[in-house]
Amino acid sequence: MSQATASERDIRNQIALGALAFADNCKQCHQLDGYGEEKLYPSLHNPALLADKSLMIKTILHGRAIGQDESGSETGRLMPRLSFLTNQEIAAIIAFITNSWGDEVLIVTDKQIEDAR
User: In terms of CB atoms within 10 Å, which of 23, 26, 29, 34 comes out highest?
Assistant: First the structure.
């Protein structure tokens, strides 16, 4: 579904699915309000994140590392990989997050997600 061809109803349905997928997979760390737990889990109220489809897709699929040691190996995981989610669930979570805390709803396509897998 591209934003150009997505109807308002399609977008509302995607946001609703995203709310459910967020509650099942993200709220434990990021909380229902998206602010996370201070110093443990980052806030999703970050304009740079909310405007970057590619970063959001990659973060959901591959997680985020805390840092790297001298050899370039990850020293820890800030966010776990959620690559078990379907493309539809990932797109819906992004729609929900950007609708809730961003300036506009970002619609991502299956191809964008598949390319990042």
Answer: 26
Q: What is the CA radius of gyration of the chain?
A: 14
CB 24 within 8 A of CB 86: no
Give the Cα-Cα-Cα angle 40, 46, 51 (nearest 5 degrees).
135
Q: What is the pLDDT of residues 56-84, one digit of tens each?
A: 999 999 988 765 556 666 555 578 899 99
Any residues with CB less than 8 A from the CB of 46 and at least 6 apart, and which? none
Q: Which of 5, 8, 7, 17 is nearest to 88 (CA)?
A: 17
Cβ atoms within 10 Å, residue 56 = 22
114 backbone dihedrals φ, ψ, rounded to 5°: -60, -40
Percent of the chain, pLDDT > 70? 84
